[in-house]
Design goal:
The protein has a single domain (about 1-40), classed as Ribosome hibernation promotion factor-like (Double Stranded RNA Binding Domain, 2-Layer Sandwich), CATH 3.30.160. The chain contains 1 helix and 2 strands, in the order βαβ. The chain has one helix at about 15-30; strands at about 1-5, 35-40.
């Protein structure tokens, strides 16, 4: 799964990126067809 994280008036810090990646792991476990995710 390719993950794209952008911040809208917020800086995307390494800790924030890690948090988002951890939460989105659930999607990969439940849905095999997810290829790309864009998180704002």
């Amino acid at each position: 799964m390719q993950l794209s994280i952008t911040g809208h008036h917020v800086e995307v810090t390494p800790s924030l990126r890690s948090y988002v990646e951890k939460k989105l792991e659930r999607i990969g476990r439940h849905f095999d067809q997810v290829i790309d995710v864009h998180c704002v």
